[in-house]
Structures are given as structure tokens and as C-alpha cells.
Amino acid sequence: MRKRGLAVLMAAVLGTTLAACGNTPDSKTTKAPENTVKTTEERTTEDGNDKTSEAGGQEGELSLRFSWWGGDARHEATLKAIEVYEKANPGIKIEPEYSSFSGYYEKLVTQLASGNAPDIFQVDQGWVAELYARGDAFADFSDYKDSIDLAQIPESMMTDYCTIDGQVMVLPFGYNGTVFLYNKTLLADWCDAEGNLEVKTWDDFLEIGKALHEKDPESYMTTAVTDGYLRYILKPMLEQITGKIDVQDDFTLGFGPEELAKAYDSFMKIFTEQVSQPYEEAVLYDSMQNNPLWLNGKIGGIFLFFSNIDTEIAGLDYDYGVTAMPMFQDAKVSGQECCPSLMVAINKNIDGAHKKAAAEFLDWFINSEEASLILGTVRGVPGSASALEALEKNGMLSDLMSQGIKISNDTLSLKNGAYELNASVKAVFVEYMEKVIYGVSSPEDAAQGMTEDLESVLAELGKK
Amino acid sequence: MYKKDKYLGYCFIAPWLLGFLVLTLYPFVVSFVYSFTDYDMFKMQFAGLQNYIDIFTKDKIFMGSLGKTLLYTAVSVPLKLLVALLVAMMLNKLKRGRAVYYTIFYLPSILGSSVALAVLWKYVFKKDGLLNLLLGAVGISGANWLGDPNLVLYVMMLLPLWQMGAPMVLFLAALKNVPVDLTEAARIDGARPFQVFKSITLPMISPIIFFNAIMQTIEIIQIFTPAYLITKGGPVKQTYLYSLYLYDTAFRDLRIGYASALSWILFAVIITFTLVFFALSKKWVYYGDEK
Amino acid sequence: MYLIVTLAAVIVGYPLLWLFFAAFKENSEIFTSIRLLPEDFTVEGFLNGWKSTAAVPFSTFLINSCKMVIPTVLLTVGSACLVAYGFARFEFKGKKLLFTAMLSTMMLPNTVIMIPRYILFNEFGWLNSYLPFYVMAALAANPFFTYLLLQFFRGIPKDLDEAAYIDGAGRWKILTKVILPLAKAPIVSAALFQTVWTWNDFFNPLLYIDRVKSYPVSLGLRLAIDADSVVNWNSIIAMSCVSLLPVIILFVCMQKYFVQGIATTGMKT
């Protein structure tokens, strides 16, 4: 049986590819291939049918492809919102194309390059400038003002992050700011009578950290993932020293090697004074949820985006509080990242009807109370004023998150440079940060090397 | 002795030939052309030999990454083949329970590059992980295997060793094809096991040894999983293997032209190795169809 | 002997056993405890993961994987047998060159091929179906399998072919009646490898398939992994185990084909 099946199959392969070749094997086996070939054809047509019926076969139906990345909660909430929208708008079909973060960008750029990108797609703030400059990928939202209420997005967010060359290229789903989330149980000794912790300066932070580690050698004041050490500690320190955006929009740096070396000196103290979990241990975990010290309540606190507070403490039985980032005594700005994080764009290369329908859908998705209540904070604290109001009114923001928002809003900070979170730029930062942490380079050498490499990466990005 | 089969051979290889012309040749040629351009997925500009010149003169990462990849390949390919062959020979000798052992040794390969792999490796190799627990039991204080830049590359070499299912299965299939009468006759003639192995088994399975050596070299030199999934190339770029560098250049920096040039350099390296392998193979590989 | 094999099996297998039991643990225990057995057994990971991974019932991913893998494997084996036979037993002009060309297609890193290939499949209208996988398999696009069978075919003495030829068998019959029965083990191995590789393939389906309802397990398993969300590792690990199960069963079923080699079927040299 098995052998015959194989022979039939091979004949099928030979038959399909080689119908023209004269020297076909004896007639007994040639009959079989036709059958097999037919079944393959059937399968393909079946697939084809599938496609048309799923991708909006019914007449008059307009289908929109919408892609995003995320975890379970985001997928489930978004699908539910789509379902509600489709019910209310029978002519519209939203095709969800969601995935995990890994591979999303690779796929998106491949799709953009071959003109096959979704109609609506989620983007990271760090990609926007580059995709605009290279790919001209985004439709201008201001052309669809009648379909989508742009006034719900705060003015400063609109100018700083959404508008390029006078066109509204992206809109924010959620926005973020950096705060310090601390474990009140572990840090009880250093909290005031109400149980609140105050760490105004980095010196305070180091003091408490040292004392904590002395008291319990297993505990550390803080930890982070690789990206976190860079974005929540090293870069804020650097911005506090310079008072400038570190990667500016004209492709220059807001700091010199000396200032960077100074930032490295302060940064390294969190390791040398054992205030942070040793980097070589922290580096193994790609999220706090995998870090045993955090899970066991042995970490004083972590720097994070206020949108992520609920995620990081999910399932943990400790008492938590939030406070602002520490600053150097004479610093003018905090260096926190306070910006929209997840953004959304409409594909430029689709027809007007689709663009209009996409804008209408996004208006509902971003601004409406109905959608906001389904979506909650799965894409961070909403950037849209009406959505945020809906969540506040219905008590859908946790106390810690509300506190985090307030703290972050009260802190003076600079905007993110357009290329500051660009992946190539960040890779250079990480490379040299690790060199310093592992003692491969001195802070001075690393500062020199990093400045040079950044300049060449920025030159490449500025080339267009 | 066969008649009129001058062209019959083409008929049999036609599926591949067609696939080659339609599906493979185009991407190949295109990527070769890209390697002489500045291409960022959206715009293309002719750059002549600039990419290649930059790789050899300006690139700070290229040499280190290629060197680590070659070291990785040079150590893990022979070890992987040796382990696979030894395990296959042992399994071949087993009389009972073969199926169970066989499955166990193949299981890691079924796991492939699943996301669970990263969880598993960290569980074994982290500071307070399984390995250090065992070492601690015999009084050795273990290192931080994945966090120590001096060790991490070597620890990662264990991954292909652990996932040696494919060559093992092939070795076993080859060992099965060694006629029992031949080895038994030799043994009756008084040959020692090692002599039987060297003069009968080894030549009989040499085509498969050769196949495994070539394929594993090609595969491991392009290995992507350990760096991408477990270490992200770190710490301090110690596991930044060539394929990950290539991937970052293409998809993170969107420098497709440069990445294509990097690819063709790797292609040249691999094909050189392969040609040397083939040239050397004439001395030690025996085929049953040779007269 | 058994001692050594058992010891080796424990070293290889223990981490996998831990992984299996991790599926029964609470999320935080997976990362904080070194023990093999969970403190409290919970099958929640299996139940939740099966009911819905990223809002899709897990069985959908499994069925998709089968739809993608089974035809791919059969076509791979079929095409590889033909092409390998062509290279092993025929003389024709340019054979060496073509063979070299075939092998060399394995040597260019996939990263740079992915984009032009994607564009090609997009032109053909094959995206969002499993056609790219089927066609690549039917056209022997992975030379690994062809070369593997070629190596084994070359080990079969030509005298056998010639004897059959003298008895009046055509070239096709020689392949099906003489060569293939002797090459069962490598053919089954090839099928097994292709099953495992296609089953685990992540990047190709990621690029070619947009619709989540058509995702195979390899993509489905990663859908829920996100650094900014709560990740239920126990259900991901549980579903990883479930997704390995069909392949393990297949492997166990196919074993007898490796175990009975030519030596027992009485081939003479």
C-alpha cells in the first residue's frame, strides 16, 4: 500500500512537471497521476474559494485589513471591539492580522516594500520617522478630518509625535511616562508614616539601595531588562546632565563624549554599589515576569511605563507604590520618556474609499466611549482625551496607574527625538552600555566609541 | 548498457530543474544584484563595490562575528557528528528498549526552535539553575553560564549537540545497511571490534558520514536559533553569530544591499569549505555503485 | 552498555521532562523553582491554552499545521526520490554543474532570499495559502532531501539495477521495484525530517500567511508572547507539549522502518 502511494505521488510530481517529456514510464502508472493532480487542484481551488468568501465576498462589503502585535489580553479585547464595530456597520469587515512582537516589524517592512501592507497597521513610535523617510508609507489623517476627530489628541502630542512635514502620519493608541514602581513590603523601613517612599535624588536612591542589600544580601533596590537599563536609567541620567534631547531630529547628538562619560560614571554606581541586581544575572530575563527576584519580592522597585504597572504586578501578593524618577541635584529635566508608545497608521497605497472607511473605524476605535470601555488599557493609557475620560469615569484605571499618570504629568521632561528609539540607534547604545558594564571598555573609551558609531548610524539614517 | 537514455536523466531531475529556474534562481540573482547597491527595501541606488569594500575596511562587527561563527562551527560540527555516531552505534547494539531510547534522543530535535527552548536553556544554565545545582552537589561552584561573556559561546555550542537527532537517525539508517554477514565473518576470522569498525563499518557508512559532515557544516555556519532566541547575541556581542548580524543588518537597519553583500561573502566561505570537503572525499568515501 | 545509554538518556531527557511538568505549574513557579514536580498540580495551562490561545481555539492551529505539513512532506519525498534517482543513475551533459548548482542553493543565507521570494509569491498570488510550501516541496527546492537520498541510492550496487534491466524492467520499474524498497529507511527519515522542520518553521509561515485563522502551531504558539503583557507561560508550555505530540507519535510509529534495515531483508553484496 505504502509503496504504491509513493509511486503514485512521484508519478504525480513527474506528471505535472514533465508532461512534455517524451520518455514517460509505462501506461499503468501514468493513469494514477491524473487523479492525484486533480486532488491537488481541488485543494487549491478550495483555498481560493476560502479567500474570496472570507475576504469580503458579499457584494457591497468593504474589507479592511488591520494588523497589530501584542499579548492575549490585547488580542482578545481588540477582536471583541472589531466584532462590535462590524455589527454596528454591516458594510464593513475588519480582517484581524495579529501576531507577537517578534517578527512583526520584519513582516511589515516586507509587506510595505511589496505593496501588500495592511490597510491599518500598528507601529511603534521609534519606527515612524524612518518608515516615513524611507517608505512614504503613511496616509495623511488630516485629509480625513470629517471622518476622524483629531482634536481629541492633545496638541503637544500631535505636533511632537504625529505630524511630519505638516502631515498627520500616525495617531497614538496609548501614551506613557516613566515612573518608579516600588515594593512597599520590602522597603517598609525606608517609607514614611503613610507607607510612601521618597527618592528625590540618585544619591537617595543609592543610599537606600546599599542599606537594603546590606540588610538582606539577596535583595536589590532595582533590576531591569537590557532595554530597561538603557531607557529608564542610563538615558535619563544623560538627559539630566545635558538638559537636551540626546538624539536630535537634525541627526546630531545632544551630548558630547565627556557628558556621556559622566553619565556612565553615575550609572555604574548602581552596579558597583550593588544597588541593582548584577547585570549578568538580570540580562537572562526578557521580562520582569521571568525574573525570580522580582517574582519573589526581592527587588525594591523597577522603573517602568505607567501603562505596564498592572501587568508587572499581576499575580504578585505584595503592596506596591509609585513615585517619580530620581534626579541629580541640579538637574532641570527628568529624562523620563513621556510620549505616545503604540501608534497607528493608515496605509498610503490604498484607494480613497478604504482610507475613509479606515479613518471612520479608527475614530470609533480610538475616541469612542464604547470602544474604550472594551479596550481598557490593552494598548496603554489612551492618548485620546475622550477615551481617557471614559476610562476615568468608569473607574477602569487602577489606583497605581492613575497615580503614575499624575506623577509623570507633573514631571518636567523633554520630548523623545524622532530617531531616539530607532532600533539601529538603540543597538549602538546597548552595545557600548554593555561594554562599560562588563568592564570591556572604560567609560571614557566607550563614550568616545559610542559617539563615533552613533554619528555614522545617524549619517546613514539621514542619507535617504 | 542502457539504451536511448541520453535525455531520460533530465526528465527525472526536471522537478528540481523547474523549481530552480522559477523559484530559486530569481531570488539568487536578485540578491547578488542587491549586493552592489544601496537598497533599503524602498529605494535602490547603485553602489558598485562599496558594500564589499566597507565590509572589509570599515565594518567593526564583521570580523568578530565571522570569527565567532567559524569557531562555533569548527567546534560543534565535529562534536555533533561524533556524539550522533556514538549514540547511533550504541542504539544499534541494543536488543531491548531501543524504541524508548531512540525517542528520548530524538526528542530535543523535535523541539526545534520552539519558544519553550529559551525557557528551558535558562532553567538549566542560569546562576541558580539545574547545572549549578548538580555541580554544587559535588562541591563545585558553577559559573553564570549564559551571563559570562567568556563562557557563553561555548555553552551555546551544546545546543546543536543536544539536538543531534537528524544525523543520529541517518547514522542509524546507514549502520543498518552494513551487512551483518560481513562483520560477523570478519569477527569469526578473529578481527577485533575496532578493526571490524575501521575496515568494514566505517567505509560502508562513509557516504553518510560525508553527507552529515557537509550538511551540518552548511547548517551550523548559518545557525540562527541560539543567538536569536536565547542570548540575543549577547552579552557584549559574544554570541553575535553571523546570521544574526545579517538579519539585523537587513531587517533592523534596513540595509538590504549591505546584508546581501554579507550573505555572498558567507556563501563564498561555505562553498570553499564544501569544495575542499568534496576534494578530500575521494580519498575516504566509498560508494556501492563504484566498480 | 545499558548504564551508559541510560545515563546519556537522562542527561538529554531530564530538561524535557522538567519542561513537561512546567506545564502543570503556576506561572511564577516556573521561573522561581528548580524542582521537577509542581507544588500544586494544575491543569489550567492545558485547559486555557486548548480553549483559546490568543483568542483562537488551539485545535485550529493544529489542523492548519496538518494541512500545511502532510502534503508538503509527501511531495518532498516524491520529488526527492525522482531527482535523486536522476542524479544517481543517469549520465547526462552538465550533470556535475547542475549538481553543484543544486547544492549551492543551500549555502546562501535565507535572510536575503526571503524578500525576493516573498515578492515572487506575491506576484503569483500564492500568499495566504499553503501553496508556497507545496510548490517548493513538489519542485524539490530543499536539496537536503535530494542529496540525502542520492547518497543512499549510490550505496545500492548497480548490479541489482542491471539484473532487473536484463529481466526486462524499464527504468521506472527499476526505481520503484529495486531502488525504493531498499531505501525505505532514508525515505522515512526524509519524511520525518521534513515533518519536524515544516512543523516548527516560523519565519516562512510568518511571512506568507496573514490570516490568524490559517496560522500553523509554530505561529500560534508565539501569538501570546509579549513583553508588555501578562504571559501565561504554563499554557504556552502546555500547548508546546501538545503540539509536539503528533510528531512524537509519528516518530514512534515510523521507528520500525529504521529498525529493519537492508541487512535483515537479505540484500547481498
Mind sketching the topology for me?
The complex is a heterotrimer of chains A (464), B (291) and C (269).
Chain A (H helix, E strand, L loop, with lengths): L1 H17 L8 H28 L7 E8 L2 H17 L3 E8 L4 H10 L6 E5 H11 L19 H8 E2 L2 E2 L2 E2 L1 E3 L1 E6 L18 H14 L4 E3 L3 H17 L14 H16 L6 H4 L9 H4 L3 E7 L3 H4 L7 E4 L15 E2 L1 E5 L5 H16 L1 H7 L5 E2 L2 H9 L5 H11 L13 H15 L5 H21 L1
Parallel strand pairs in A: 1-2, 1-3, 9-10
Antiparallel strand pairs in A: 3-13, 4-5, 6-13, 7-12, 7-14, 8-10, 8-11
Chain B lengths: L7 H27 L2 E3 L4 E3 L3 H8 L4 H32 L4 H14 L4 H10 L4 H8 L14 H5 L1 H5 L2 H12 L3 H9 L4 H29 L3 H7 L10 H11 L3 H29 L7
Antiparallel strand pairs in B: 1-2
Chain C lengths: L1 H21 L4 H6 L11 H8 L6 H32 L5 H10 L5 H15 L6 H8 L4 H12 L3 H9 L4 H12 L1 H17 L2 H6 L8 H4 L12 H27 L2 H4 L4
Helix pairs in contact in C: 3-14, 4-7, 4-8, 4-11, 8-11, 9-10, 11-14
Strand order of the largest sheet of chain B: 1-2
Q: Which CATH class of chain B applies here? A: Mainly Alpha
Instruction: Look at the structure and give the CATH class of the domain at 71-218 and 254-265 in chain C.
Output: Mainly Alpha
Mean pLDDT of chain B: 91
Poorly predicted segments of chain B: none
Give the beta-strand count of chain C.
Answer: 0
Number of DSSP helices of chain B? Answer: 14
Classification by helices and strands of chain B: mainly alpha
Large-scale geometry of chain B: flat
How much is the radius of gyration of chain C in Å? 23 Å
Cα gyration radius of chain B (Å): 23 Å
CATH superfamily of the domain at 71-218 and 254-265 in chain C, by name, is MetI-like
